[in-house]
Design brief:
There is one protein chain. By secondary structure, the protein is an alpha/beta fold. The protein has 25 helices and 34 strands. A 7-stranded parallel sheet has the order 14-15-13-16-17-12-18, sandwiched between helices. The chain has a 6-stranded parallel sheet with strand order 19-29-28-20-27-26, with helices on both faces. Bound molecules: adenosine-5'-diphosphate (ADP) and zinc ion (2 copies). One zinc ion binds next to loops.
C-alpha cells in the first residue's frame, strides 16, 4: 500500500484500465482503479477483476486512460498481483496481431499464451505441492488454506474465498505459489511415469585396492567378468555414475557375465529416476569445426540476412543443419540478443537438448507441453528476467516474454504440428514467428530437408533467401530406397502377413549384423475396422461418424475422435452372424505379427497409445538408443528428427493410404513423411536401406522419394496448386459449421453460404461434408473461402467475414450453431 503523502492531489484523478480477460469474448473491458492503486498500475501487470455475476479472473492490463466507458459503469478492480509487468508490451502487440490475423478473440490468445498458474480464476482448482510443509512459517490465512487442502486435497479458488471470508484471495495464493507450497490442478492430469535408467556400482567391500586385486584373481577363470570389472574401473575414473548400458558397451562382456557378477553381489544394480529433462552437471562445452559445405552455407545465410528477414536452409537429413544453427546462434548471442529455437513437440528429445547444452551450457531454457504448468510458469518468469539466452521449445514458446530476440530458428519448418488445430487461436507457429521477428527486427531461419511448398515458393519469388546443403556430413551416403510391389508378392504368394519377402530378408540381415530396424505404419491400434461378412455391418462410434478401431492392448473398440470405447463383438448385433472380420492393420498388429515371425527379436511400438504418459516417449527413445529394442514399429512419431547411429533398415509397411488421402496437400505430405522416415537410416557410418511397400508402385511421389528429388516434387505440385487455386497462390479460410441437429445444420449452413456468396461471390466453396461428418455428436459442414493473392485486400475480406459472422451467430434462427474459423488451414 502506498503512503498517503505519496499521492499528490494532482494524481488524485480517476484512472480506468482496459483489460484482457482469459475468455472467449470479442472485447476488452474497462475497470476503474481505486485511487490508492493509481501509482501501481502499469500495462502488462495482472489485476483481479470480477466479471459476470460473481466470478473472479486474473486479467492483464492492456491500456490505461482517464476516460470512463460509455456503455456501462466500470467496476473497480479488486487487486493488483504484480510488482513488475509479467506481459511485455511487445507481447500484447503479438496478441493483437494474432487475434486479427487468425480471426479470434484476444482473450483466446491470452488463454493460449499464459500458463494456467499465471491466470488464476474462481474456477481454478488448487492442490498442495508438498507433504511436509513447515507450517510455523505460514501466515494465519496461509495456514488455514494449507490445513483445508490437507483434508480436502483439492479446492477451487472460490472455495478458498469462502473459507477465508474474503472476496479476493489471489495475492495470498500467489504467495503460496511463489513459495512452491501449492499447485494448479491441471485439466488433464498426466500420469507421471518417471524415466528409469539402470546403473551399476561395485560392492564397497572390494573398494580397497588389495581386495580388488584379490577379486581379479578370483575371476581368473571368467575372462568376460574380468572385462566387465576392468571396464568399470576405467569408466569410474571418468564419471561419477556408470549406467548398465555404458558398461555393457565399453566392456563387450555380454548380459550373462554381468548377471553373474550381480548374482555374486560383486556388482550392485540400482535404478535412478531421470526426473529432469537434462542433467544439471556442468558438461564441458564441445568444440567443432564446420565442414567446407557447412561453412559456405553459413556465409550465404549471413549474406542473405543483410537484405532479407527470412532464409530457408534446405539441407538433406544428416547434412548437419544443427551445426550451422549453432554457429549462427553464437554470433547472435555475442551481440547480446536472444535466440528462439522452435522444434516440433515430438522432436524435442533429450538428444537435441543435450546437444545444445553441450555448446551453450545452462543458457538454454526448454519449454513444451510435457512440462507441467508450474514448470512452464517458472520458465516464463526466467525468460522475463532474461535468465536464458536461448529458448528451445515447441509451438507455444512463441508466447514467451522475450526481451531482445535476434534470431528465430524454425527447424523442420514443414511440420504440420506447428499449426494449432484446436482451440482458437488456430495459429501457425512458423508464420507467427515471422511476424514476431518483425517486432524485434530479428531474423528467421527456416530449416528442413523437405520444405513446405509455401516456403520454397517464397524463395523462388525472392521473398526468402535460399541456402542448400546437398551432402550428408562426413560423406555418409544417402540411404538406398526400394519400392516393392505388394500386388506382385501377393500374386506370387511370397507375402508373410503384411511383410513382403524383400522386407523380411532385410530385417533378417540387419538383425544378423546386430543393426536396428524402424518400421513405419501410419495407423495406430490393431485393426481400423470390424466387418460382419454376412451382412456388412460395421460398428461405429455412438458420437462420431467413424468406424471403431480394435485395440488389442485394451481388448476394446476405440473411437480415435472422441475417446469412446466399446466391447469387442463376437457376433453381429444386426444379423446375429458369428462371421466377424477384422479389416486393415495398425501398429499393434504389425508389432504382434513381427513377434510371431521373429520370436527372438525385441520389438517395441511408438505411437500415441504407447507414449501417453509423461516420459514414456523419452523412455522408448532411451531404450532404443541403449539397444534394448531391435525393431521399433511406429506411426509418424518415428520420423521426427531422431538420430540413431545403429539403424540401418527402414520399412514402410504401406504407402498407399497416405498418397490417396483426400487433401490437396496429400502428395506433399507423403513426400515429406516418407523422406523423413527414410532419413533415419544409415545416419553415421553406413549406408541405410529403405523398403517402401505399396500397391500403386507407379505413383510419381514414390519415385521422387526414391530419387531424393525434392525439386521434382515441387515442380509437379506447384503446377497443381496453380491450376486449382490453392496456396501459395490463394489464401484459404475454412469455416467449420457445427450443430447437434443435422436438419437444422443443413438449413442454417445453406443460409450462411448464401450470405457469404452474396458478399464474396465465387470465392465461396461448399458447404461440404468433411471426411468425418460428425464428431462428439456435432454434425459438421465446411465452407471454404479461397482468396486470390493479387488485387484484393485479405484484411478487408477478413473484416467483412467477421462482421457477417458476428451478426449471424447470435441470430435466434441460428440457435445452437457453432462456427469455427480456421485461417490458413493445414
Ligand atoms: P540434420 O539436422 O541436417 O539432419 P545433424 O545436424 O543432426 O543433421 O547432423 C548429423 C550428424 O552429423 C550429427 O551426428 C552431427 O553431430 C554430425 N555433424 C554434423 N556436422 C558436424 C560438424 N561440423 N562437426 C562434427 N559433427 C558434425
Ligand atoms: Zn451381420
Ligand atoms: Zn467418437
Amino acid at each position: 500500500m502506498l503512503e498517503f503523502n505519496e499521492i499528490s492531489t494532482a494524481e488524485r484523478h480517476t484512472l480506468f484500465i482496459e483489460v484482457v480477460l482469459p475468455l472467449s469474448i470479442s472485447k476488452t473491458y474497462t475497470y476503474r482503479v481505486p485511487y490508492e492503486l493509481n501509482n501501481a498500475i502499469a500495462v502488462g501487470k495482472r489485476v483481479v477483476v470480477q466479471f459476470g455475476k460473481s466470478k473472479l479472473y486474473t486479467a492483464i492490463i492492456y491500456k490505461i486512460s482517464d476516460v470512463p466507458p460509455q456503455l456501462y459503469e466500470a467496476k473497480y478492480i479488486l487487486d493488483i498481483l504484480d510488482e513488475q509487468p509479467i506481459v511485455t508490451s511487445l507481447q500484447l502487440k503479438l496478441w493483437e496481431w494474432m487475434a486479427e490475423y487468425y480471426l479470434c478473440n484476444i482473450g483466446e490468445v491470452m488463454q493460449a499464451a499464459l500458463p494456467a498458474a499465471l491466470k488464476l480464476a474462481s474456477e481454478t482448482r488448487i492442490i498442495l505441492n508438498q507433504s511436509n510443509i513447515d507450517k510455523s512459517a505460514l501466515s494465519d490465512k496461509e495456514f488455514l488454506i494449507v490445513d483445508a487442502l490437507e483434508i480436502k486435497s483439492e479446492l477451487r479458488v472460490s472455495d478458498i474465498s469462502k473459507l477465508l471470508g474474503q472476496k479476493t484471495v489471489f495475492p495470498i495464493l500467489k504467495g503460496l505459489f511463489d513459495k512452491g507450497i501449492v499447485n494448479i490442478l491441471e485439466e488433464i492430469t498426466q500420469k507421471y511415469k518417471p524415466r528409469i535408467k539402470s546403473f551399476i556400482k561395485l560392492n564397497e567391500d572390494y573398494l580397497a585396492s588389495e581386495n580388488l586385486k584379490a577379486l581379479f584373481e578370483i575371476l581368473n577363470r571368467a575372462p568376460k567378468q574380468q572385462d566387465a570389472l576392468l571396464a568399470y574401473i576405467k569408466l569410474r575414473k571418468e564419471r561419477a555414475e556408470i549406467s548398465k548400458s555404458d558398461l555393457l558397451e565399453h566392456s563387450g562382456c555380454g548380459d550373462s557375465a554381468l548377471k553373474a557378477l550381480l548374482d555374486k553381489q560383486i556388482f550392485l544394480i540400482y535404478n535412478k529416476e531421470l526426473s529432469r529433462l537434462f542433467s544439471e552437471d556442468d558438461e564441458e562445452l564441445q568444440e567443432f569445426e564446420l565442414s567446407k559445405e557447412q561453412q559456405d552455407a553459413f556465409s550465404q545465410i549471413e549474406g542473405h540476412f543483410n537484405s532479407r528477414k527470412v532464409v530457408l536452409l534446405h539441407g538433406i537429413t544428416s547434412s548437419g543443419k544443427t551445426q550451422v544453427y549453432v554457429r549462427l546462434m553464437e554470433k547472435v548471442l555475442a551481440t547480446g540478443k536472444q535466440v528462439l529455437y522452435l522444434l516440433p513437440e515430438i522432436a524435442l528429445t533429450t538428444q537435441i537438448i543435450e546437444r545444445l547444452r553441450k555448446y551453450f551450457g545452462s543458457k538454454v531454457g526448454v519449454y513444451h507441453s510435457k512440462f507441467n504448468d508450474n514448470e512452464r510458469a517458472e520458465v516464463w518468469k526466467k525468460v522475463l528476467n532474461g535468465d536464458y539466452d536461448i529458448i528451445l521449445g515447441a509451438r507455444s514458446s512463441i508466447f514467451l516474454p522475450f526481451q531482445s530476440l535476434g534470431l528465430i530458428i524454425v527447424d523442420e519448418e514443414h511440420e504440420t504440428s506447428f499449426k494449432q488445430f484446436d482451440p482458437a487461436p488456430r495459429y501457425h507457429a512458423r508464420d507467427t514467428a515471422i511476424y514476431l521477428s518483425g517486432i524485434f527486427d530479428a531474423r528467421v531461419l527456416l530449416g528442413s530437408a523437405t520444405p513446405s511448398l509455401e516456403s520454397y515458393y517464397n524463395t523462388k519469388i525472392g521473398k526468402y533467401g535460399l541456402v542448400e546443403l546437398t551432402e550428408r556430413y562426413g560423406g555418409v551416403k544417402v540411404p538406398e530406397i526400394k519400392i516393392v510391389s505388394i500386388t506382385e508378392e501377393t500374386k506370387g504368394k511370397t507375402m508373410q502377413s503384411h511383410f513382403t519377402s524383400v522386407l523380411i530378408d532385410q530385417i533378417k540381415s540387419a538383425f544378423s549384423r546386430k543393426e536396428q530396424v524402424i518400421l513405419f505404419q501410419n495407423r495406430r491400434g490393431y485393426t481400423p475396422f470390424i466387418l460382419c461378412s454376412t451382412c456388412g455391418f460395421s460398428p461405429k462410434c455412438i458420437n462420431c461418424d467413424v468406424s471403431l478401431t480394435y485395440h488389442k492392448t485394451t481388448g476394446k473398440l476405440h473411437c480415435h475422435y472422441c475417446g469412446y470405447r466399446n466391447e469387442v463383438l463376437h457376433e453381429c448385433p444386426a444379423c446375429g452372424s458369428a462371421h466377424i472380420e477384422q479389416k486393415g492393420f495398425g501398429t499393434e498388429k504389425i508389432e504382434d505379427e513381427l513377434k510371431l515371425i521373429f520370436p527372438e527379436i525385441k520389438v517395441s511400438r511408438m505411437d500415441l497409445d504407447s507414449t501417453r504418459s509423461r516420459n514414456s516417449f523419452q523412455q522408448l527413445i532411451d531404450d532404443f538408443e541403449d539397444k534394448k529394442i531391435d525393431v521399433m514399429v511406429g506411426t509418424q512419431m518415428v520420423a521426427k528428427g531422431l538420430d540413431f547411429s545403429n539403424v540401418s533398415t527402414i520399412g514402410i509397411i504401406s504407402a498407399d493410404s497416405m498418397l490417396n488421402y483426400p487433401d490437396f496437400r496429400a502428395y506433399e505430405r507423403s513426400f515429406q513423411l516418407l523422406s523423413q522416415v527414410a532419413g533415419r537410416a544409415g545416419r553415421r557410418d553406413k549406408q541405410g536401406e529403405v523398403i517402401i511397400q505399396a500397391y500403386d508402385i507407379k505413383n510419381r511421389v514414390l519415385h521422387q522419394v526414391v530419387n531424393h528429388d525434392y525439386n521434382a516434387l515441387f515442380t509437379s505440385e506447384i503446377i497443381e496448386r496453380k491450376n486449382f487455386n490453392y496456396p501459395p497462390f490463394y489464401r484459404l479460410i475454412q469455416l467449420d459449421v457445427k450443430h447437434k441437429n443435422i436438419v437444422r445444420l443443413e438449413s442454417i449452413v445453406k443460409n450462411l453460404a448464401a450470405i457469404l456468396e452474396k458478399q464474396f461471390g465465387e470465392r465461396i466453396l461448399g458447404p461440404e461434408t468433411p471426411l468425418v461428418g460428425r464428431v462428439r455428436n456435432y454434425y459438421i459442414k465446411t465452407i471454404l473461402i479461397k482468396v486470390e493473392k493479387e488485387g484484393v485486400s485479405i484484411n478487408k475480406i477478413k473484416t467483412a467475414l467477421s462482421s457477417i459472422l458476428r451478426a449471424f451467430e447470435p441470430d435466434t434462427n441460428n440457435k445452437g450453431i457453432v462456427i469455427q474459423i480456421d485461417v490458413d488451414p493445414y
